[in-house]
Amino acid sequence: MKDDIERVEYASMLYDFYGSLLNESQNEVMALYHEDNLSLSEIAEELGQTRQAVHYTLRKAEKALKSYEEKLSLVSSYKKNRQLAQKVFSIIDSAGIEEPYAEKIKQIIEQITD
Question: Could you report the per-residue pLDDT of 49-62, keeping only the tens digit for each?
Fold first, then answer.
């Protein structure tokens, strides 16, 4: 169950980064599945397709997104930057930097890593 949730979360993140690179059909299915949280059956009904066709399109789109990530590593870089930002936040908190400076530094780091 946890693996399925992690797979869907990862696919959603890939879609956020690379969704605009998908073809129209793949983009539509991914949006309905990941943004609108529709089931495969619900998507099939909405698009007038079979559940199997929707499943095939979804898997093909996810494969394309993974391929983009393998080449560009944007999601990987984003995750690393967020981890580094959290470390910097911890350092700021433990360093005793006074407000409003600490909060301003954190806001700037958030903007950089967003």
Answer: 999 999 999 999 99
2-72 maps to CATH 1.10.10.10: yes
49: left (phi over 0), alpha (psi -120 to 50) or beta: beta
- C-beta of residue 112 within 8 angstroms of C-beta of residue 80: no
Q: SS3 sequence, 28-88?
A: HHHHHHHHCCCCHHHHHHHHCCCHHHHHHHHHHHHHHHHHHHHHHCHHHHHHHHHHHHHHH
pTM for this predicted structure: 0.80
Residue intervals of the chain classified under CATH 1.10.10.10 are 2-72
